[in-house]
Design goal:
By secondary structure, the protein is an alpha/beta fold. It has one domain: 3-Layer(aba) Sandwich (Uracil-DNA Glycosylase, subunit E), CATH 3.40.470. 35% of the residues lie in helices and 10% in strands. Strand 5, helix 8 and strand 6 form a beta-alpha-beta unit. Helix 1 runs antiparallel to helix 3. It is found in: Cytoplasm. One of its GO terms (cellular component) is cytoplasm. GO terms for molecular function: uracil DNA N-glycosylase activity. Its EC number is 3.2.2.27.
């Protein structure tokens, strides 16, 4: 009997939105099965893994490769049950917005002259072509970073490279040291890279606010003849 993440992987492979993503070596060469089996072993051992297995691949399903216009990379899912749902930074919990997301949305509101959104669910962005991909697609409840070395990083490397190679014009919003390491993978002759510090309040340099990534991304997309992102959430 297969575990829940292995089952979710099989469902992802069957999803029409996964057609291009599943050609990545991570999915085609067996790495995905190995990572899924490792996560399933943790679940079998009694740990609670987040997000729920059926939401692990949400970022790739909601944003097929041929629709990517913007890339935002996160670290790993929120470790509190009910918060994460498969999209980097996105939040469905019932408490106050997480600090980093609150910083992101405050910058968006100020940048675009919009009210601060009440919702933290970024699904609306993903459906417009914003790939919200975490460095690790799973985490254990109460243990942030627990799965960062499980092998998910291979998927992120390949996804960034695939977007750079296959899409004509994409904005890469790389926030924080971990995300900025991927800048070297991006073909800057075709794509726009906007780097900034991490939106976390623990970022002592405070070099995220005021960078206006949302308006800059939309202006560039318009220059390329592409529909800009409607960043509103409410």
């Amino acid at each position: 009997m297969t575990g829940p993440v292995t089952q979710a992987l099989a469902a992802f492979r069957a999803d029409p939105g996964a057609v291009a993503w599943r050609t990545l070596p991570f999915f085609a060469g067996g790495a995905a099965e190995r990572v899924a089996a490792r996560v399933d072993a943790v679940i079998a051992g009694g740990a609670q893994v987040l997000p729920p297995p059926d939401l692990v691949f949400t970022s790739l399903v909601l944003t097929p490769l041929d629709r990517v216009k913007v890339v935002i990379l996160g670290q790993d899912p929120y470790p509190t049950p009910g918060d994460a749902h498969g999209l980097a930074f996105s939040y469905r919990g019932s408490r106050r917005l997480p600090a980093s997301l609150r910083t992101i949305l405050a910058e968006m509101a100020e940048d675009l002259g919009q009210p601060m959104p009440k919702s933290g669910d970024l699904s609306r962005w993903a459906k417009q072509g914003v790939l919200l991909l975490n460095t690790a697609l799973t985490v254990e409840a109460g243990k942030a970073g627990a799965h960062l070395k499980f092998g998910w990083a291979e998927l992120v490397d390949e996804a960034v490279a695939a977007v750079s190679e296959n899409q004509p014009a994409v904005v890469f919003l790389l926030w924080g040291g971990s995300a900025r390491k991927h800048a070297i993978q991006v073909d800057r002759t075709r794509h726009l890279v906007i780097e900034a510090g991490h939106p976390s309040p623990l970022n002592r340099l405070r070099d995220f606010r005021g960078t206006r990534p949302f308006s800059r991304a939309n202006a560039w997309l318009k220059e390329k003849g592409l529909e800009p992102i409607d960043w509103r959430l409410d």
